[in-house]
Amino acid sequence: MQETEQSIDIYLQKFFICIKESSRFTICLDRKTREKNSVFVSEFGLKDADLKKLLLSLIPKDFSEVVQNSNPIFAHEMLYVFKKETTLTDINGEDRELELYIKINLITTSSNDEAYVISCHPAEKPMSYYFDR
């Protein structure tokens, strides 16, 4: 799939609308299925508002890749992955420079869009950007 900065900007604008209308936005924090997300949130004492602010700071240049959903039930869905470099303060008061791995599923229905943040945690391996920086 060939993405452009404009197509990613459109994707992010739809995503941002879902974040601002909280009923259309979910961050997957289940400790059994999304432990990395919940550990990240706990380690940095992040509240919903903090996560939303972080996600709303994404820009098209943060885009990394599109991947097919690995869950066979949702194999038709394409997930958008972003690399976000940021500095956050952990619960011990230490500032830490992070490279975050953020994976989003934006589902369009006949009535509206719904957004699911599947992953939001420090990257486990080096990531690259899709567009030149």
List the SSEs and their pairings.
Elements lengths: L4 H16 L4 E3 L7 H9 L4 H9 L6 E6 L9 E12 L5 E14 L4 E10 L11
Parallel strand pairs: 1-5
Antiparallel strand pairs: 2-3, 3-4, 4-5
Condensed summary:
The chain has helices spanning 5-20, 35-43, 48-56, and strands at 25-27, 63-68, 78-89, 95-108, 113-122. The protein is of the alpha+beta class and 133 residues long. The model has no long low-confidence stretch (mean pLDDT 91).
Envelope shape: globular
Estimate nothing, just give the exact number of structural domains.
1
Total of helices: 3
How many β-strand stretches? 5
Overall pLDDT, averaged?
91
N-to-C SSE string, H for helix and E for strand = HEHHEEEE
What about the largest sheet?
5 strands, mixed
Kindly report the CATH topology: YaeB-like fold
Structural class: alpha+beta
- Beta-sheet strand percentage? 25-35%
Radius of gyration using CA atoms only: 15 Å
Overall helicity = 25-40%
CATH class identity: Alpha Beta
Give the low-confidence spans.
none
| Cα distance spanning the termini | 20 Å
- As laid out across the biggest beta sheet, the strand order is 1-5-4-3-2
Which architecture would the CATH scheme give at its second level?
2-Layer Sandwich
